[in-house]
Amino acid sequence: MVELQKQEYIIEARGLVKKFGFKTALRKVDLFLKKGDCLALFGPNGAGKTTLIQTLCSLMRPTSGEVVIAGFDTRYDREALHKIIGVIAHDTFLYNNLTASENLNFYGRMYHVTRLNEKIKELINLVGLNAYINDQVQTFSRGMQQRLSVARAIIHDPAILFLDEPYTGLDQQGIEDLKQLLMKFRNQGKTIILTSHNLSRGLELCNQAAILNAGVLIYQEDIANIKKDDFKQLYLKLTGEKTWPVQAPLRASSKNSRRSCGKISYPN
Amino acid sequence: MTPKRIIKIPFEIITFLAMLAALYAIFLYAPVEKTMGLVQKIFYIHVPAAFLAFLGFFITFIASILYLYKRDLKWDAAAFCSAEIGVIFCTIVLITGPIWAKPIWNVWWTWDPRLTTTLILWFIYVAYLMLRGVVSEHQRANFSAVFGIIGFVNVPITFLAIRLWRSIHPVLITSRGINISTPMKHTLALTFLAFCLLFFCLLKSRIKLEKMRTDTEMVSALFEDKIHYQTN
Amino acid sequence: MCLFSFLVLIIFSFAFGTGLKSFKGIIPGILWVAFIFSGLLGLSRSFGVERDKGTLPGLLLCPVSPWEIFLAKMIGTLIFTVIMEIFTLLVFTILYNQNFLPFLLPLGLVIFLGTLGFSIIGTIFSAMSSTTRTRDVMLSILVFPISVPVIIAAVKATGLILDGTSIQTVFSWLKILVAFDFVFLLLAYLTFGFIMEE
After folding, report:
1. Which of A247, B105, C118, C132 could be cross-linked to B134 through a Cys-Cys bond (beta carbons 3.0 to 4.6 Å apart)?
2. Which site among A18, A56, A59 would you substitute to test the C interface, given the most C Cβ atoms closer than 10 Å to its Cβ?
3. In a domain, A42, yes or no
4. Is the minimum CB–CB distance between C2 and chain B shorter than 8 Å?
5. What is the mean pLDDT of residues A87-100?
6. What is the pLDDT of residues C166-188, one digit of tens each?
7. Considering the domain boundaries, does residue B125 fall inside one?
8. Can you list the positions of beta strands (E) in C56-163?
9. Would residue B1 count as lying in a domain?
């Protein structure tokens, strides 16, 4: 039974704690995802979304707890793990003084991508940067850099994607394109975790939704089981409350939502 | 009163008494050296300080390895405190050395392997302390542990290099020998003991201070967290 | 880098004047001061570019170990530093009317080994200092005391070669240089992963 469960999940995070000095960014986060799942991670600013993504994709070492992805521990099997994950973060990880194709060429060679030239052409076409293939990245707008960053992240055809605010800086067309692309990946059975501020965008793509608040995963539910409006209300309540003044009285409901991490029943 | 307390108070007092006894021994018990005169008294401070500087850096080295192995910030704090005290004793060595050398060797400084290595050692650990000051908090422990290890491994290498470098040139000053009489030996042993006690006394209170500092920061961070929690 | 080492050579010629009697004795010193100061410029770029553009995480996400990143960075620094050194030697030959041709092979070997050691130490600390605000100052404060043994060995060996001493004496210094390079490479292998951690 235990063995079966182990194989069932492609991403297993147990008791993740991440401290920066004395500030705690994550408090005992447990996260389990099956292959082909798509998780949308919401939460107010400073909730630890980025920290969680970076810890999951092995860029940060958890203070305690462990992350096992497809059987690889993020602390020890990094090289094997990196071959199967793709990451889009706030930073684009692109070299400003190189052209679009040079950037992709560099990363493609780092991943030992075969038939790289065709792959680059295909990707550049996919993200709609055909006209700028030989332009230096520093001349790109933020949106164009983001598009290229998407191409960089998927150059080695990863099975698992981590997307930290992938829609930032993209125009309507770019958002639509990226959504189509992610849909395609979902249909191919890739596992995706993304964070977003925009509820509807996150929800229309994913089959799982989670809310992270003050480093605690307070909510994780299958999308089929939640009603959108109520979910939105919970989300807005959280983000709204964060800006409340410090002297806000301690209330029963907020106490609940903090203590019962994960166990909270969805209000109908 | 817990047993711990009983031991703790006398430790500082013993150190104090030992230092007093050492002072007495240096200036009243030990005879004045015939050829060097009064200035030879510096020897009783110089030699133990050199030993303790080295001990301090050695503790930093060991604590750095333990930190990287165990990932416990307590070892990082120990490495830091020990390096700080090591730098103090190393500074004492570098100040007393020339004062002693000037009347005896007639120069303030020679590029003798031991002297030069001590100077490099001082530079390394001052750099260590500076590094801690400028790196961001979540990388400080790792960086300084790595530097603490490389810096210490570098010491014997530097010594070897300087010795080989010097050996080809004529060594200007060779008369290092001192006639040590029995009272002098006793005095040296006593100052050694007193300085060792002082070292551990300083190390203990420095670690305690560091722990208090981190505790305070932790409490204030927790307090902020609590507010953060409650408002959510 | 090349321009900087050119300037260092010119400043030395002003500082000492060309009519110095025991000029031969200070050649290795001038050369290595030029090498090290100019090399430091290249070192600060090594990880500086990655931190400036925020590409280091992207590099770490590639399926390579920190040790491979270290080696790649170190070899890159080494190549550029060696090019700078060849240029410096050429300029030195012209400005100071010295002929290095008879010693070219042993001299090249010594310079290469010395630069290798310097690059190894420098790359470790370039990765460290690039995260700090006072990047360049911190780099020199960290690198100089640690690279003392390598510099001593390199300067000494260079001096012996230029004096035309027997190859045996030089060879013992070469062995020492190789040993130092090896020790620092080993240290880098053991510790570099910890520096790359966030």
Report:
1. C132
2. A59
3. yes
4. no
5. 88
6. 778 888 888 889 999 999 999 99
7. yes
8. none
9. no
